[in-house]
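Researcher: Good morning. I'm working through a list of sequences from a screen, and I'd like to move beyond sequence-only analysis. For each chain I'm collecting a predicted structure so we can compare shapes side by side. This is the next one on the list. No need for commentary yet; just the structure.
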Amino acid sequence: MGIADRIVITGVGLTSPNGNSIEEFRRNLLGGVSGVSSMETRHMGMVHAGICDFDEQRHQSKKERRRGTRAGTISIFCANEAVISAGIDLDKIDRSRVGTFVGITEHGTVETENEIDAIRQYDYDTKFWTHHHNPRTVANNPAGEVTVNMKLPGPHYTIGAACAAGNAGLIQGVQMLRLDEVDVALAGGVSEAIHSFGIFASFASQDALAQHVDPTKACRPFDKGRDGIVVSEGGCLYVLERLDDAKKRGAKIIAEVAGYAMNSDANDPVLPDPVRIAECIALAIKRAGITPSDVNIVSTHATATDMGDVQETAALRQVFGDFPNVHVNNTKSFIGHAMGAAGALELAGNLGSFDDGVAHATINVDDLDPRCEVRNLVMNEPREIGKVNFILNNSFGMLGINSAVIVKPFTG
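Model: Good morning. Structure tokens for this chain:
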């Protein structure tokens, strides 16, 4: 692989239910701090949810926030924080060479639900329907709001990849850099899912919505008592650059993208296929030029649904067998399922392992489901594992979309 093909992460901007910076997020993961709480949502009453608490007006005005969307505001916050993290002065570079690629699970549901609810009080008279609805609900909205806010005339679009979208956004950024379409990529994923009662209602109708009495214990991947998903919001966008460009400007390099893969189950709309998942993971490993035993941390997608967790761990056993160096953890147990942001956030939560040699835990595993047993599953307490050379980040979604991203520390 030539230096022009080597893509590095030089900045991270995020908001999660338990942290608004990569440092705070990592600290709370290592400290066992859950970000899951409860909220009241339309037609559903009280539900468990991962709610972000960040300064919406740090990078945009109150008027801009009113015109836009929650997903757009999350994207704007994350994009600006990522650029600050990377130490890039946008006034000193060609802004037309900055691309914005944001993964989303869905978009427009929140705004449409809100408008329908609003016009009910007017007997559904559509003259009270907001003229902001169309720009709020177009699929490219979150990425587009970033470009308007930051005055970036380069390419932008969203990547609809269900709950694999965070990884997919990052992969798209890597590809656009390698194609020389951009010099800087803002890439990752966002979600405003908790603001849609329909998402909660749909999971509830599938008996797939977590019901634990304690919200901080509601998301229980791999545990016998798991009973479903905790819906969350959040976002994480990375600054990606070609290695040569990053070195020329003296950037601090956080990590290097070593490999990635995406494929499709082409089978069931909701039940993951362990064979196809294993193929996706194996392809990412092959593209990284490594073997399964070289991977030190596997960041799982596991959502705390019964068969979803079983199918993923079956795939892991198929790929990794009983390799002693591979440690397995899960970030959703702390923050719930942030949908389109999940993969990007979960990768960010593990990047600190390159510096501290610690794998953060999967919390809330009181009684491990034997069907989910894998060697070196890090449960309830962080584990010192020594030098970390490769992290594999899994992220899957409905309609059978699978993704895997592998990162490594930059070593020159």
